[in-house]
Amino acid sequence: MGWGSTSETFVKKEIPEAVLSLCADYDECIQLLESGKINIMVADYPICAYTAQLHPEKDLITVDHPLTIEPIGIALPPDASHFINLVENYLNRLLITGILDDLQMYWFESGDWVGRVKERSQ
After folding, report:
1. Residue percentage of the chain with pLDDT more than 90
2. Region for residue 111 given its phi and psi (left: phi exceeds 0; alpha: psi -120 to 50; beta: otherwise)
């Protein structure tokens, strides 16, 4: 989307023949999509999924799976062994029980929460 972003790097590397248009923000990208000035928007998967859910009237779609995976970490104090253990246990429990899959469905696929956000922002 923006200058120096991972999205820009991805497009330059993976789609070098594409004409790259950089946007100041996601709203500008959506306006360019609507006007037909660009054909696709490349951004972080959560942004694309959220944008499609936020604007269902625009018939936007996103790919089924992210095109790349960016590692995300959790920074914890190195001398907090009990806290580190607690966080690791919670993350493992969320993974084993399938809650992480449920959260993925809720936040990125169902869009059930988008209406509540719109109501609160009005």
Report:
1. 30
2. left
pLDDT at 72 over 80: no
Burial 23-52 (b: 16+ CB within 10 A, else e): beebebbbeebeeeebeebbbbbebbbbbb
Helices (H) and strands (E) in the chain, counts: 6, 0
- What's the CA gap between 94 and 16, in Å, rounded? 39
HSE (side-chain half, CA atoms, 13 Å) at 114? 17
What is the Cα–Cα distance from 20 to 92, expressed in whole angstroms? 40
CA distance 76 to 78: 6
Distance, in Å, from the CA atom of 119 to the CA atom of 42, rounded to the nearest integer, reads: 28
Contact 2, 8 (CB under 8 A): yes
Chain position carrying tokens 């209406």: 115
